[in-house]
Amino acid sequence: xxxxxxxxxxxxxxxxxxxxxxxxxxxxxxxxxxxxxxxxxxxxxxxxxxxxxxxxxxxxxxxxxxxxxxxxxxxxxxxxxxxxxxxxxxxxxxxxxxxxxxxxxxxxxxxxxxxxxxxxxxxxxxxxxxxxxxxxxxxxxxxxxxxxxxxxxxxxxxxxxxxxxxxxxxxxxxxxxxxxxxxxxxxxxxxxxxxxxxxxxxxxxxxxxxxxxxxxxxxxxxxxxxxxxxxxxxxxxxxxxxxxxxxxxxxxxxxxxxxxxxxxxxxxxxxxxxxxxxxxxxxxxxxxxxxxxxxxxxxxxxxxxxxxxxxxxxxxxxxxxxxxxxxxxxxxxxxxxxxxxxxxxxxxxxxxxxxxxxxxxxxxxxxxxxxxxxxxxxxxxxxxxxxxxxxxxxxxxxxxxxxxxxxxxxxxxxxxxxxxxxxxxxxxxxxxxxxxxxxxxxxxxxxxxxxxxxxxxxxxxxxxxxxxxxxxxxxxxxxxxxxxxxxxxxxxxxxxxxxxxxxxxxxxxxxxxxxxxxxxxxxxxxxxxxxxxxxxxxxxxxxxxxxxxxxxxxxxxxxxxxxx
Length: 564
Description:
Oligomer: single chain
Largest sheet: 5 strands, mixed
Structural class: mainly alpha
Shape: elongated
Distance between the termini: 73 Å
Strand order of the largest sheet: 2-1-3-5-4
Strand content: under 5%
Helix content: 55-70%
Number of helices: 21
Order of helices and strands: HHHHHHHHHHHHHHHHHHHEHEHEEE
């Protein structure tokens, strides 16, 4: 296919505008609803609270790394924090800003996905692809589109990356520098995206190499569009250098370098999974669409494999194989390259699941949902590319069939509108994940704030003495600390000088642990069911809200040294 210039590309994207807007509607509607309902009751907890602490530091001090990992390193880079810092600043640090940021990122991704499909495969297939995508998102977490959590935020940007790499292979040089942004966001947010992004990059590089080899080096340099391709490659390198500067600086100046820590983990990690589990988990992705169509409820299982019916997965896999065979027979390079990318991502998914250390939580490879979307888009594209020409030929003999292509397009339009509308309503009604919707944690924050004023811990200039926030542990898999981190965030945002135990340095960072032993006041978050530990002498129960309680007072002193 000849190289496509920027003018032709822009016209194609303009034609895709209505479909792109429809695809982005579920995220845009929820973003607007959140924007007009800011009430401060979205206090994040768990990893979302830690992310908000990172976002609030952007522009105040260097933020060079991504979110912490429970395996002792940080995810590669801070791009997600930089992107989310824009709505955070514009909305004055509102807790809802991170969810609004996630919705805007996903809206842009959905619009881009629809635009690429419309441009490359036509309107009918784009409508089918939007339907597949809407159904797939309905089978995932209800609040996925508004979730800023680092493993889930890049799910849709990753799918956009695959499609941008695909259209770049087919001649759209402008797609290469655009693809660098979602690729960098994915890998920097969670190291688990490294395998699928590398798989996509590998296929794109092979495709570009084969194209140059087919034309010959001299012809490739002299052919129309060669300068645009070179400019696109240089622009891609420039964008990548810019986006990866913070983690590079950390690696060169940090002690230890985070990249070295990641490599050390990847070399020495112990797998608790297997290749068979990886294959079964990816088969689940082929099963989502037929299971949903036939009314099968999503499995109630938080670990991989999720457990969709095997027959549904076999149906999806057989349909995909048939579509690939048809594309090969008809010599349709667009679909063959899309199939190659689908297989590459699926292979990366199998390898990634087989490599998981510890419990195989679904979130670790949630990006594998792209496999099902790509596979069923391929199936629809192959089928529609046969159906429309057949109907046009048949209409020459039977005039009654002249309206059939238009009727099919109208049906696909209705299907896309209905499924997107259902997704829009469900997204708008869903709760923002890991937020204090009922105000339990906010009431604990208010109780500690009040006690600090009543006990003279607030100085004349409005600053507070150093306060240590502890999280009582009763041996749960997660523990109260996951919720307690939200209380710590609420106090920090209220201007309290908060420190936590050095045990939590990986999550909070050094600035929130280095003065923990200077504190003379401690607030402890625990469950309100009577489980240990109980308040120390001199500490008082301040509030009970829902399943939580907070007690506070002077830091307990050692009976032998008299020191905290």
